[in-house]
Amino acid sequence: MVETDWIEISLHIPSPDDEKREIAMAYLAESGFESFSETDTGIKAYIVSEKYSEETLKESDLFILPAFKGSTFDISTIERVNWNSEWEKNFNPVIIDGRCSVRAPFHQKPEGTEFDIIIEPKMSFGTGHHQTTSLMTSLLLETDVEGLDVLDMGCGTGILAILAWLKKACKVVAVDIDEWACLNTTENAAANNCILEVRKGDIASVKDEKYNLVMANITRNILIDNMSVLSDILKSSGELFLSGFYESDLKVITDAASRFRLEIKRKISKDGWCAAHFVKN
Length: 281
Known about the structure:
By secondary structure, this protein is of the alpha/beta class. It has two domains: 3-83, Alpha-Beta Plaits (2-Layer Sandwich); 125-280, Rossmann fold (3-Layer(aba) Sandwich). The protein has helices at 18-30, 54-58, 83-90, 131-141, 159-166, 179-191, 220-225, 227-232, 250-258; strands at 3-12, 35-39, 42-48, 72-82, 94-96, 100-103, 115-118, 149-153, 171-176, 197-200, 211-217, 234-246, 262-270, 273-280. It has a seven-stranded mixed sheet, with helices on both faces. A four-stranded antiparallel sheet has the order 2-3-1-4. The protein has a three-stranded mixed sheet with strand order 5-6-7. Strand 9, helix 6 and strand 10 (197-200) form a beta-alpha-beta unit. The protein starts with a strand and ends with a strand.
């Protein structure tokens, strides 16, 4: 069992909107924050207490941006918690498109699903409950990846990487900047008898490699900033699945993609969130 202390930062942003929240999450992630949730006044961000520095937080470039002038934050410590026990209290199985179940080890395997994925998400993102994870899973379910080289960029719990392996991909690489996510993905891969190559790093760690399919469920601004690399690591006619953004952001995503020979093939949405399927020309 993994127990740890966490620092919670409640960031209050003047006139908060989706774009400001995404920018704040991107900057705080660079300062070591690992998990986020949206609030009416901004966001909450979480970091392991051993990694936290109030001085580093105050010196973040986020607070010199004009849009964040006047932002304030509250700091609190979340007492030592067994996260497995906490999420087990509320975690329910998920069935996506009637074909893929996502459940905890203590849940009974549902009948009639083609793919059954067992996860213990801990503090990592990606239980299948969030719309973006569900949307990306739907895209992957509809795609033949047998014999292909696949990258799951920002793997979280490893759901997408595991599903790609279950669908008989040749090689699956799972990458995340968060060490906790990498450990979680490794554990979940073992629980599902999958062989994944799990790495801690960012997009730069794979910039010299080539894949048939790249999946990235991150945030809008990070996707846009890394679009050139996402295109470069795709093989000819390679496919790219993107999510982590709202349907209202689709145009800016497709505009950025088109500058790097990426043509949108289709998009799907759920509750305002969006996932898009691109092909490299």
